[in-house]
């Protein structure tokens, strides 16, 4: 059991690192989009408000300015260069592998524990899914204490434009303060607890069902069967899992970003602000930027699970 847990940890570490490198540009744009209302403004001679270049460009408006993803990308590249799209990746590349390792370890332990107590020995049944859910929630809660200060550093870099060293110093100086390094921890726990249980249950369920359906349609020894089973099914299952998990957890991710960017003050208060900004439309307010989140999380989840499954097989000698 201990050896298997180390395999899960190592495979999760590898998959987390690869996911960050591939998907960080989308994450940078999403963070800026989520935090738009928190960005500093200045007044022009004509009396208009403009979002500063820290937001990725300038744009005039008679009210609050909301930049779209394409405008943010153009502004960032124009003002700071292409590499600015990977801003914040230094903090994430150091922490996400640890985060993913904790999550995958919880997933593997929960699945094996439930399977061990399963009399018929089959995977994908109710007992296994319960274990996977509990393992996912536990891993999600534990890694929140790693990711909350790290994401504060990332948001400080991506939104305010501070350097890695400056952002890290600011966060570290408030290590023992809820308004310092732990700003947004409550929202992070809500985002990473139950949603990660949903993530792993969705993945395991989809993988089991897809594998069962595909095996019933193909013959033994078919190389196409092996390729689909080892590559396509984990990726499709990972994409499905990301969608269901973020449907549950996205509002808390948005709230977390607002709090860490500086305008949010508490989960409930920030949620009310988001709804008010959207003209009273609850879904529109709490799911602002959701499409962009899926554009990042779906490939990240698909790549992450494929990498995890592949690395786990190599490391375990299967």
Give me the secondary-structure topology:
Elements: H1 2-34, E1 41-43, E2 49-51, E3 60-61, H2 69-80, H3 89-116, H4 126-160, H5 164-173, H6 185-192, H7 194-215, H8 223-261, H9 267-277, H10 282-286, H11 290-316
Antiparallel strand pairs: 1-2, 2-3
Query: How does the helix and strand content classify structurally?
Result: mainly alpha
Residue-averaged pLDDT: 77
Strand order of the largest sheet: 1-2-3
What fold name stands as the CATH topology?
Mitochondrial carrier fold
In total, how many beta strands?
3
Alpha carbon gyration radius: 21 Å
- Number of structural domains: 1
Second rung of CATH, namely the architecture: Alpha/alpha barrel
Describe this entry's structure for a reader.
This protein is mainly α and 318 residues long. It has one domain: Alpha/alpha barrel (Mitochondrial carrier fold). The chain is built from 11 helices and 3 strands. It has helices at residues 2-34, 69-80, 89-116, 126-160, 164-173, 185-192, 194-215, 223-261, 267-277, 282-286, 290-316, and strands spanning 41-43, 49-51, 60-61. Strands 1-2-3 form a 3-stranded antiparallel beta sheet, with no helix packed on it. β2 (49-51) and β3 form a beta hairpin.
What characteristics describe this protein?
318 residues; mainly alpha; Mitochondrial carrier fold; 11 helices; 72% helix
Short recap of the structure:
With about 325 residues, this protein is mostly helical. It is built from eleven helices and three strands, in the order αβββαααααααααα.
């Amino acid at each position: 059991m201990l050896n298997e847990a180390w395999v899960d940890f190592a495979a999760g570490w590898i998959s987390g690192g690869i996911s960050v490198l591939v998907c960080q540009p989308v994450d940078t744009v999403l963070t800026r989009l989520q935090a738009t209302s928190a960005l500093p403004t200045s007044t022009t001679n004509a009396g208009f408000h403009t979002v500063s270049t820290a937001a990725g460009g300038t744009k005039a408006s008679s009210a609050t300015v909301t930049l779209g993803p394409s405008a943010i990308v153009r502004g960032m590249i124009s003002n700071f260069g292409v590499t600015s799209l990977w801003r914040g990746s230094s903090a994430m590349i150091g922490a996400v592998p640890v985060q993913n390792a904790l999550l995958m370890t919880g997933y593997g332990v929960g699945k094996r524990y439930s399977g061990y107590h399963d009399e018929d020995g089959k995977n994908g049944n109710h007992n296994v899914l319960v274990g996977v859910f509990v393992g996912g929630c536990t891993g999600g809660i534990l890694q929140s204490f790693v990711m909350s200060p790290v994401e504060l550093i990332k948001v400080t870099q991506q939104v305010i434009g501070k350097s890695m060293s400056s952002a890290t110093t600011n966060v570290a100086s408030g290590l023992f303060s809820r308004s310092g390094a732990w700003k947004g921890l409550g929202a992070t726990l809500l985002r990473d607890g139950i949603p990660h249980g949903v993530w792993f249950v969705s993945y395991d369920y989809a993988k089991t069902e897809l594998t069962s359906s595909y095996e019933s349609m193909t013959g033994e020894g078919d190389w196409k069967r092996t390729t689909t089973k080892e590559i396509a099914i984990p990726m499709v299952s990972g994409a499905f899992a990301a969608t269901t998990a973020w449907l549950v957890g996205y509002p808390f991710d948005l709230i977390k970003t607002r709090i860490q960017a500086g305008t949010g003050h508490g989960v409930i208060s920030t949620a009310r602000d988001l709804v008010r900004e959207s003209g009273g439309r609850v879904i529109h307010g709490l799911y602002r930027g959701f499409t962009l989140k899926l554009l990042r999380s779906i490939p990240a989840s698909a790549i992450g699970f494929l990498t995890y499954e592949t690395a786990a097989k190599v490391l375990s000698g299967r």
